[in-house]
Amino acid sequence: MFHKILIANRGEIAVRIIRACKELGIATVAVYSEADKEAMHARLADEAVCIGPTPSSKSYLNIPSIMAAAEITDAEAIHPGYGFLAENAEFAEIVIESGYAWIGPSPESMRIMGDKVRAKARMQEANVPLVPGSDGAVHSIEEARQVAKSTGFPLIIKAASGGGGRGMQVVHAEPRLPAAFNKCQTEAGAAFGDHTVFIEKYLEEPKHIEVQVLGDKHGNIIHLFERECSMQRNNQKVLEEAPSPSIDEATRQAICEAGLNAAKAVNYEGAGTIEFLLNPDNSFYFMEMNTRIQVEHPVTEWITGVDLIEWQIRVAFGEKLAFTQQNIKMKGHAIECRINAEHPFKFTPSPGTVELYHAPGGRSVRVDSALYTGYTVPPHYDSMIAKIITHARDRQKCIRRMQRALDELAVIGITTNTELHKRLLANPGFQRGDFNIHFLENWLKQIPS
Fold first, then answer.
1. Of 136, 145, 216, 281, which has the highest C-beta tally within 10 A?
2. Residues 35 and 179 in one domain
3. Residue 449 within any structural domain of the chain
4. Buried b (16+ CB within 10 A) or exposed e, 91-117
5. Whether pLDDT at 449 is above 80
């Protein structure tokens, strides 16, 4: 096994990876910006190296600094976590060419699935269902009009290199098409350095279902069932659960098989996620693949008993998966609430010093966080400060356990979105599993800010 791994990330995911490494007997190297000198991940790692000033562009996105940190600490492998450089194929190539192990999929898999136009073409070859739309990139407004004639309105224009809910424009009628097309191209170029866009039929009431996959370097690929990720605001996930509360067993088998076929189509190695849109009639379509570990991976770990971070590391080292598809069984239900340092209904950020932090505990409650009393939450990075995950024999028990855990959570000194989660969990529609990706935003419109 590796002797030392560098974690090219920060916050709760860096802490999560450090914990997995410690349990495997692997030494860890944390990297941190000047703003993160006192951060939990820098304290917990065996070694910590400052890689630059506060801005991400000069620290967590600074490839030369990260590689220098790996060199001076004699690290053998690099784990990118999620966000930052996690899906950057160029970074993965640099890591591999420099003689380090890359704890993630091959750069080629990342390139194919990171380019949504190429990804759709590969999925079509693998017979994975696709949303009706353009066959590839759309280069002009005239081409966009031709696609619109065949798909009809509403439609959605997407950046080929997009992600995280950015680079998308929904168009409900032809008069708005030119402005939306130009805006999406401009946003795509500014955000991703790539102006390429494509067009799909806009599904009006879908659920967001994703399938967790795991592959090794020996051709073995399995799925670990699905996650329900429809609780979103501005295309950003707020709460996730596994399994989905509203799909039947036949649909589960079909969507998981499609996810497996998608992963096999790119010879996938490591942990990855295939994202689908599911219609009310149980038809579903491929949306994209995330070639990294997901924020919501703990709910899958709860229901399957598989430590995904551990297996990312083992696969990168060259080990074969120790289980087959038949070994993976689903047990109970799990829910994850993302706790952000922000106003629960205005969604304005709330950085500052944590005067007191008390994490919930008790049976089947897990907290992934880098928070501690006295820590100053910086305003420069993502506002998520903790993930609370509960597990129980069924969904209703799991909801009640999460409600109890949120009641125990105490974060004094900054404002969090805990109250949003409390009200959401008590919502009758949520409790019935009667929702789609617009549920949260529609519900929020009814709540005074």
1. 216
2. no
3. no
4. bbbbbeeeebbbbbbbbebbbbbbbbb
5. no
Domain with residue 10: its CATH number is 3.40.50.20
C-beta separation of 198 from 153 below 8 A: no
Q: Which of the two residues, 337 and 448, has the higher pLDDT score?
A: 337
How does pLDDT run across 123-136, given as a tens digit for each residue? Answer: 999 999 999 999 88
Q: What is the pLDDT of residue 162?
A: 74
Is residue 252 part of the annotated active site? The answer reads: no
Could you list the residue range(s) of the whole structural domain that residue 435 is in?
A: 207-444
Q: Is residue 326 domain-shared with residue 413, that is, in the same domain?
A: yes
Element (H or E) spanning 41, and its range? helix 40-44
Q: Which of 10, 111, 122, 292 is catalytic?
A: 292
Nearest CA to 123 among 276, 243, 244, 281? 276
Order of strands, sheet of 197-201, starting from the edge strand that comes earlier in the sequence? 168-171, 155-159, 197-201
Query: Rounded to the nearest 5 degrees, what angle is found at the Cα of 296, between the Cα atoms of 212 and 286?
Result: 45
Q: Determine the distance from the C-alpha atom of residue 54 to the mean position of all C-alpha atoms in its chain, rounded to a whole number.
A: 24
pLDDT score of 248 more than 90:
yes
